[in-house]
Description:
Layout: H1 8-38, H2 43-69, H3 73-104, H4 114-132
Amino acid sequence: xxxxxxxxxxxxxxxxxxxxxxxxxxxxxxxxxxxxxxxxxxxxxxxxxxxxxxxxxxxxxxxxxxxxxxxxxxxxxxxxxxxxxxxxxxxxxxxxxxxxxxxxxxxxxxxxxxxxxxxxxxxxxxxxxxxxxx
Length: 134
């Protein structure tokens, strides 16, 4: 999935992912600053706290739409494989960290970072797929 593709499904995926990821970053930063400055409570605090998850849902929808829209089976297969890299990496990482917390008294892993760890493992998988499909 090169950056300068003529495939319209890939271009739509890139724009949707960029929009969802940008929304996530803006929401996380602005809500954190809002909580720091105004210390909301009650229903407003709950709504604001989960609002960035809507951007994550937007990213999941973008991936699903890409898998539906792209007609290139190889590209879809590569995307699924990258998703497996991300999910598998998150599963191993969080399980290992949990075991370290249990037996070695490591500091608690904040689940808020799971989304970021997922994308980091997808990034780790990209060079392996590129090398395999040269």
